[in-house]
Input
Amino acid sequence: MGINTKAVDAKSSLHQPAADEPGVLGGRVCTNTALRLAARRLGQLYDEALAPLDLKATQLALIAEIDKLTVAAPQGPTLQDLAARLAIQLSALTHALRPLVRDGFVELRADAKDRRTKHGVLTPLGKAKLSEAVGRWAAANDRVEAVLGPASAANLRALADQVSSDAFLAAYKSED
Output
């Protein structure tokens, strides 16, 4: 059922200004704007799916990442490790964790060796919320895949993974 199976070039992009009005960008398209618009749209769809649970997609991603990292670190990931994995600043992570801690889904525990280091740990309530949310997330994810088509969805994920990689960041910065 995919909405589009062929690649779209920059000339046919939704964000391309009209030929007679090049605008401040001089007729260039903005990859950042296109990705942010797409991310907001997808975020809204996943948020709608999770709304009955009073959970946002970003919160689900956060508790899912804590759960995943707890396999390698049974005491829970450090907040520094969690922020690095999510490619966000530590201050943004602590801000995002506040409602999860307040609602009893996540607990912050001091490290046994270094009391300044905190670990994020899912509570039993957090594990139950994660379990409940996964079904709603999966339904939204399957719908996105059906609308885009499996090949386009896979390409989108591959490009997103490429852009979010350390290799991309290093290549981008090496051009400075």
